[in-house]
Amino acid sequence: MRAYLTLARMSWSTLLIYRGEFLLQLTGVVVQTVALFAVWQAVFAGAAGGEVGGLSWEQMKGYLVVAFLTGGLLSSFTDAQIAGPVLHGTVALDLVRPIDYQLSRFALSLGYVVGEVLTVAVMAATLVSAFGGAALPAAGQAGLFLLSLLAVVPLKFGLVYLVGLLCFWTGNFHGLSLSRVAVTNILSGALVPIALFPGWLQVVCQLSPFPGIVSTPALIYLGQARGAEAVTLIGVQLLWVLVLWGAARLLWSAGVRRLTAHGG
User: Fold this and answer.
1) Residue 153: pLDDT over 90
2) What is the DSSP letter of 210?
3) How many domains does the chain have?
4) 53 Rama sector, left if φ>0, alpha if ψ -120 to 50, beta otherwise
5) 75-78 long-range contacts, Cβ below 8 Å, gap at least 24?
6) In terms of residue numbers, what domain contains 86?
7) Beta bridge partners of 56
C-alpha cells in the first residue's frame, strides 16, 4: 500500500511541476463548456414554455456544470502514464517490479485527480457565476451526488486504461485517445442529454458504461433520479467499474503475452 501512496504523491508533484500544461489543457475544456452554455442558452431562448426535454435553463446550467466537472477529471496526464510505457517499451520494466501494474496506474491517476478536482471546482464556480448561477443539487441529493461523482473516477479510469492497453497492438495512441474522447462525449451525454437522443441511441447508451460518467451524476444532481432509483444508478456505475477492471486484466495478460513473444 505504501508503494501506491508514494506513486500518488509523485503524480501530484508532477501535476504541480507541469501545471502550465495542465491548465492549458483544462482551458480547452472550459472553452468547450462556454460554447455549450452559449448554444444551449440560445436553444432555451427559443423554446416553448422555456423548457427542453423537461429541463429548465437553470437546470440545464447545472447539468453542464456536472459535465464540466467530470470532463476535467483524468486529464491527458493519466493517458500518458498508461499509454507511454507501452509505446516506449518501458512497460517491460514494470513486469519485474513487485507491484500490480493496473493498481499502480490507478494510484498515479488518483494523485492527478486531487489537483484536478481543486482546479476544476474553482473554474466551475467562475463559469457558473459568469452565466448568472445554476441550479444547486436537489434537496437531499448532495450525498448521493457525491457518491456518484466519486464512482466516476474509477469508471473513467477503466475506460482510459483499456484504451491505453490497445497500444500493445496499435503502436499509436493519439488516434485512440481522440476516438475515446469523441465517443465518451456523445454517449455519456456530455454534449446533449441522453433523454433527447433518438430511442435506439438511448438504448445503445444504456447498454454501455458511458452514461455513468455524466448522465448518472447529472440526473442525481438535478433530482431526476431519487432514492432507490439513484442508488440503482450508482450500483450500475460500480458494476461497470468491476466489468472494466476485469476486462483490463484480460487485455493486460494478452498484451504481456504479445510483448514477451516479440522479445520485449
Assistant:
1) yes
2) G
3) 1
4) left
5) 75/22, 75/25, 75/26, 75/112, 75/116, 76/25, 76/177, 77/11, 77/14, 77/15, 77/18, 77/22, 77/112, 78/105, 78/108, 78/109, 78/112, 78/157, 78/160
6) 2-261
7) 51
All cell numbers assigned to 81: 502514464
- Check if the beta carbon of residue 190 is closer than 8 Å to that of residue 213: yes
CA distances to 6, 83, 258 from 168, rounded to whole Å, are 27, 9, 8
pLDDT level of residue 210 (50, 70, 90 thresholds): very high
Give the separation between CA 67 and CA 7, rounded to whole angstroms.
Answer: 28
The residues, ordered by sequence, that sit 6+ positions from 125 with a Cβ below 8 Å of its Cβ are: none
Query: Cα–Cα distances in Å, from 258 out to 165, 217, 261?
Result: 12, 38, 5
Enter the C-alpha cell of residue 226.
Answer: 431519487
For residue 214, the 8-state DSSP code is T
How many helices (H) does the chain have, and how many strands (E)? 12, 2
Closest to 76 measured CA to CA, from 9, 8, 152, 21: 21
pLDDT of 82 higher than 90: no
Grid coordinates given for 187:
454517449
Question: HEC profile for 160-190?
Answer: HHHHHHCHHHHCCCHHHHHHHHHHHHHHCCC
